[in-house]
Structure to design on (125 residues):
């Protein structure tokens, strides 16, 4: 696959996972300074990794959420919780990932993640 095809597949997958509105906003905020980074993300994160056949999208979503908890990346965590819920991940499954994270990432990290998830779920109710 050439870089153009990787970018195209990446953009399609990025839109599927994060939603077209989010991706459109991210693209609109792209500047000459951030353009190469956006291209890198699209080609490699979305066009190379998220399109691999070894894991389904739900599994990738859940792994990503767990990693964002571990790293304490709240903004990305919120983005991926929203995207997972939009993509059909049940709240109960999300809860299990956060409980698992409490053991392997630490209670403070999971506590912050539960707060974020609860806020998102409350807004959706």
């Amino acid at each position: 696959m050439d870089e153009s095809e990787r970018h195209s597949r990446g953009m399609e997958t990025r839109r599927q996972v994060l939603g077209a509105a989010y991706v459109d906003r991210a693209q609109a905020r792209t500047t000459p300074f951030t353009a190469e980074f956006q291209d890198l993300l699209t080609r490699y994160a979305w066009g190379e990794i998220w399109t691999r056949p070894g894991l389904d999208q739900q599994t990738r979503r859940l792994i990503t959420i767990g990693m964002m908890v571990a790293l304490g990346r709240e903004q990305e965590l919120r983005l991926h919780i929203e995207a997972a819920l939009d993509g059909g991940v049940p709240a109960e499954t999300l809860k299990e990932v956060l409980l698992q994270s409490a053991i392997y990432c630490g209670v403070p990290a999971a506590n912050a993640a539960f707060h974020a998830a609860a806020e998102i779920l409350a807004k959706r109710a």
Summary: Residues 3-49 form one domain.
